[in-house]
Amino acid sequence: MPPLLPGFRLDLLHRYLALAIVALGIDLIWGFTGLLSLGHGIFFALGGYAIALHLKLQVPATAPSPLPDFMSLYGVTELPWFWYPFYSFAFAVAAVVLIPALLAALLGYLVFRNRIRGVYFSILTQAAIIVFFNFFNGQQKLFNGTNGLTDFQTLLGFPVRNAQTQYWFYVITVIFLALAYLLCRCLTMGRFGRLLVAIRDDEVRVRFSGYNPTSYKVLVFAISAALAGIGGAFFTLRTGIISPRAMDIAFSIEMVIWVAVGGRATLIGAVLGALLVNFARSLLSEQFADIWLFFQGALFLIVVLALPTGIVGWLRTEAPNLITKLLGRPQPVATYPELEFDPEVQYERQVLEQEGK
Amino acid sequence: MTFLLESVFNGMSIGAVLLLTALGLAIVFGIMGVINLAHGELMMLGAYTTFVVQNGFRQLGEGWFDAYLLIAVPLAFAVAAGIGVVLERGVIRYLYGRPLETLLATWGVSLILQQLVRSISWQMTLQIALFCLLFFGGRWLLSKRAIAPRWQAWVSPVLLLLSVGIGLTASLVAGGAVGLAMTKPWFGAQGVDVTAPSWLRRGVNLWGVQFPFVRLFIIALTVVCLAAIYCFLLRSQWGLRIRAVTQNRSMSACLGIPTQTVDSLTFALGSGLAGVAGCAISLLGSVSPNTGQNYIVEAFMVVVVGGVGKIVGSIVAALGIGFVNYVIGSGLMTRFLEPQTALFDFFEFFASTSMARVMVFILIIAFLQLRPAGLFPQKGRAVDA
What we know:
Chain A is mainly alpha-helical.
């Protein structure tokens, strides 16, 4: 793929592949479990920050102070304690997965334990994202506040902004996307996946059957958050910046719409949706930068009102019928449209007529 | 003493704004189970209505200017309620019983409304008006005539394309002919400022505490709105119908209550209150297209903490959250504590407006552990209340 694309488009593709990992996580929790999280930006950003902290600690030997450059602006003389573990690359990589997962597990446990679900869960996640936004935005000394962490130099000795390194990041992103897809496929194919769908469709009945939905929901929320963290880390490596803007409410809701466009509860749909919507976005906002929000709003409305199963869902259910119709073949009839066409009724009628004679 | 009075008053005024914002949300959410993410944008429209009315009255002279709020509040109510009805009839009606989808659709609406305020100009108004006239007028005309069934499926798409085309061309031609007066956005992306009338700009000093009239006015407005809502829901014919539909929709329908009209009415009421809230917040600071988003999530928190469908719950929750927010955010807690103790450092850390939000959220999550369904939960025997 890379040789076919000019550098700029490859850059975009790389970003969108990273976002597709996040979309997979959202499909797992929204499409299969029916929990609409509007706060995945938190986990996305946390993953990004985890890798960014490690990158920021790679201070070149020539720099005046051994601290990350922004800290001198705020007069910080000592590295905040929680930065220390991030000197280790292994810890940073683990943190990309574990910090979002643990946070999601904690939040999920507190929320699901009380059987708070549906829109309440969505609202709480939305509030959580505001809280985290405020926290990261306000802590200038700890995280450089609004400006975020940027200007990365090296990772494991490789220069980050080098085209060669970026190419390898791209390859690793693709591999991770494939792994994430396989993981989600494994999870949803078997018994676990059927339980998730059961929780989505009738949680009360699942509970009455002797399962404890809380633990399943906590687990799936944590996995989903971990995927978002991984996506965030790759996105940060590509863009070279992570800032509280990744925790914008709008961005988190957009993540949901990628999944909705592609098709809920179809894993491939989530990946497709993330790629399609983002490419459409970059194409359209190049052309109509001013009124991009109109298109985005319309996209939300159209998907929800006219295409509730998404593109993949439409292809699976509606498209075959449409093709047979276009080819002029007879339509398969799901139910008899009227009583008159019901074979049994016709039979009865014939019998009655004969007996009447 | 002054100290206590000050925190009570400030907490109350923050709570009053929260309550006014949450009131409409609580009504719509409680009665119809619909989460309206465009609520913040309806507030924003109310605020812009106030701005327009204010500009209109400024033309009339200083004496008239002082009275503009008398017109602005009802007009903000009317504008927001009108948009709310269109929203209900056009979008939400198709999504009852699917709350998560409603959430996404109303978010889309909120994006559209934000952009609309940013880029609306005479050109765009003309375009929208022409489109509505051609499309809806055309459909109405065609619905009067009998059309062959095989063409029926084609009516809407063809009309849609035609009216979009004609509207776009006409507005572009008009924009080209008239020029900037036609194409310049009315408000633009920048924030606009609403000047409070002169009698609201003062304040009164009692027992060493400053009471700005603007805050007092908002508290009074909240009280009036609450009283009006209570009267409407408890005393009027339609209030009775709304309460009936809340309790049992299908039974109400069987008894001849027009549930669809009730839905529209409820939505209009909730949206109108959002407009009034917008009018109130426009007095507090500058208004921009994303004003609504700053208030909406906290308003949701009020609804969740208060318990759904209970106005009393919203009142208590709004006042409580407002109070806690003020006490923590303004650093009042640190006054009682010795510097350099662990507790002092703890409260010092949270002593800013944005960090107070963090604290309030933690408290809300902790509170929901004790009472998952809010302060005043709906009593019932449902398994999953």
